[in-house]
Amino acid sequence: MSFATLALVSGRSAASRLRGIDSAASARYDEPENLVEAAFLSGSEQGLAAAYEEHGPLIHTLCARAHPKAAADITQEVFLAAWRSRDRFDPSRGPLAAWLVGIAKNKIVDAYRKEGRQVPEINDPDGARVERVADGRNPVDRLADRLLVTEALGSLPDRPRNILELSFFEELTQEQISERTGVPLGTVKSDVRRGLARLRRYLEAAS
Questions:
Q1: Cα first-last separation, the chain
Q2: Which of 29, 33, 135, 162 gives the lowest tally of CB atoms within 10 Å of its CB?
Q3: Helix, strand, or coil here: 66?
Q4: Is pTM beyond 0.85 here?
């Protein structure tokens, strides 16, 4: 399937693209994210188009920040590689977005190697430099982690997302979060536990 065809398919509504996907493949999914994954795994052009529309902005953002001059080409390579190896995607191990990010990280590093260069310092979403650190991970890995955390938080319903943001960004204790939001402490603890599990799932799937 060419990317010209992909562009045409992507122009249709999500509902029309996903209509016609094998019902057995999608019957076990009931969330929009999982519906896209089911469509992708179906092997149809609509499935690839749905994945590209849903996750293309995330992949292009990563590529643009890590390798601005080759961002468009690398983004295309990511989706072509993902499409050719879609049978290796296992939804039980993590979401499609994270799996695609894992492919993108490798493609970005490969692009620099072909140019005979090391991955340089790059900027994270807030403009700060993502430096090389003692753990040996390159800046692409660290930038990808930050983008994935943002992606995972954005996939949560409003209440648990707000609770996790208060915990991470404002460094409030669970008791303080409960007092500020009026959410029972037990619910806060459950939301934090499930939210952290979701973040971990995203990060591990891209590693």
A1: 28
A2: 135
A3: helix
A4: no
Burial class (CB in 10 A: 0-12, 13-18, 19+), 169: exposed
> At 33, which amino acid appears?
E
Domains present along the chain, CATH in parentheses = 3-155 (1.10.1740.10), 157-207 (1.10.10)
Among 120-124, 167-171, 178-182, name the most confident range: 178-182
Q: What is the spatial distance between Cα 205 and Cα 67, in angstroms, rounded to a whole number? A: 22
Other C-beta atoms lying within 10 Å of the C-beta of residue 184: 10
Main-chain phi, psi angles of 119, to 5 degrees: -65, 125
- CA-to-CA distance for 64 and 147, rounded, in angstroms? 12
What backbone torsions phi and psi does residue 130 show, to the nearest 5 degrees? -100, 105
